[in-house]
């Protein structure tokens, strides 16, 4: 195993299970699974996240790079566009982003978060 090369895979760690906070839930009963493969001092995280259908409010104080691996979701910014994202799409959500995330088909993404 290399100290400087890390494969992002669900095989390397156990999944954490979660859901949106009740006060952020808009519709459905979405459930999350997160495989946080990397965690570094200074608030850097990388891994894989998956959510089942539903809709909830999102509020970003952090910077996040996302790459959609599978599924279909709609990410809508308050006062702005609603964007449909699907397998192959990559994007960044910057600090200050406010809006909603709606999973239409179970969605899995790779992520890198910097607090």
TrEMBL record:
It comes from the Bacteria. Residues 39-111 form the (S)-ureidoglycine aminohydrolase cupin domain. Gene3D superfamilies: Jelly Rolls. InterPro entries: RmlC-like_jellyroll (IPR014710), RmlC_Cupin_sf (IPR011051), UGlyAH_Cupin_dom (IPR008579). CDD domains: cupin_TM1112-like (cd02227). Pfam families: Cupin_3. This is Cupin domain-containing protein. It comes from Mesorhizobium neociceri.
